[in-house]
């Protein structure tokens, strides 16, 4: 079982808005493709995202944006898009090969 993301966003991605940037969903899909390609033959279960958007709507955890109702909404939206893209990628391109 592998978790793809758990509070480990590279700083260069945070500098372009982190999970509030819609392009991150596409970057996450590319990241998922790499993981599926290199490790899919050995991984039976994938967890796409195991982290919420704490730190976007408060100042208690990174990235400490504290923009409730704005940044945490955008973060959740982009995380859902990223999850959907990773799931559909696996379903369409890897499920038949890796079962």
TrEMBL record:
InterPro entries: GH, Glyco_hydro_1. GO terms for biological process: carbohydrate metabolic process. One of its GO terms (molecular function) is beta-glucosidase activity. Keywords: Glycosidase, Hydrolase. SUPFAM superfamilies: (Trans)glycosidases. Belongs to the glycosyl hydrolase 1 family. This is Beta-glucosidase.
